[in-house]
Amino acid sequence: MMCFPGNIGAKALKCYAKLALLALCIIILTLTCCFEFLTAVRATLVANSFLGYSWYSLRNIGQNIRTPCKIENSSLEMRHDNLSHDFFQRQKSRCFPSCIIFGVSKCGTRAVLEYLTLHPDVVARNSEVNFFCNKTLYERGVSWYIQQMPLSEPHQITVEKSPDYFECHYCADLIYAANRNTKLILLLRDPVERLVSQYMQLADKTAGLPPMEEWVINPDTHVINNKLSSVMAGAYSEHLSHWLNVFPQHQIHIIESDNLRVNPLEEMTQVEKFLNLRPFFAPGDFYFNSSRGFYCTRRRSTGKTKCLGKSKGRHHIH
Ligand code: A3P
Q1: Which stretches make up the Sulfotransferase domain (predicted)?
Q2: Three-class secondary structure of residue 161 per DSSP
Q3: How would residue 39 be classed by pLDDT, with cut points 50, 70 and 90?
């Protein structure tokens, strides 16, 4: 591109406009690079301070994994195709979750995970790993975390649930540092009902737990004990605002717990869209079990039915 100072007129104006456009592009590119770099530095500093490294240790910058799967040689399966009499290999791998259900506990997180496993393009880790909120586990590294995931085929996505992440603010940074493309699902329920549910769970496991009104009230101040982590879990906006500082809003999907309970198909169809899964869920996948008082699932491939365990859907005190 050349500009001729002597040639004043439309041609010169066009030329200056092109130069201005080029300069603008360079500025935008530089700002984008700076933003990406600062985000990486921030996430790394959080990760390092979590691990107790000194603040200037930037050795993990760029740890954001590019190939979030580990191929397992032992899982190369030879499968016989009856029609073509052909043999082909199905390569299985363990992958960093494409989606993490990160809270809130007692809002139906198990139900969503269970429902998701009906979809043929989903594999899910059954138990909670709590990798990002446990220093000892985190020190084992992201490779260890990936190793904890179930085997998946190339067309399947991996999902895990660890509802304790919601209240652990540095978890957002650590997940982002590991894979910024991770999608997140959050379930919300009336905070008082959620608290009662948590109390019922605790009462099941703890002998001699005081009555709820004593448990929840601070004996010194006679107001709600907000030092209790179970109470603080219900401060949804405080926790969520932190996650939204790290992840873009379009990567977080919120499920209303009450609607999940009465209309699982509607909610799971939304989840399917959010995760870019092919449409699969249909009315026959869920049926209301009146003796349980909840929806249960029917697996299409086998016809097997399944309800959640007795620890889900406890009788509440009033
Ligand atoms: P309650 O036990 O208070 O009724 P989580 O899995 O996150 O711990 O949430 C447990 C809650 O999931 C239960 O709380 C229940 O209300 C809700 N839930 C939603 N769908 C359910 C289902 N199909 N079966 C059992 N519980 C379900």
Answers
A1: 99-314
A2: strand
A3: low
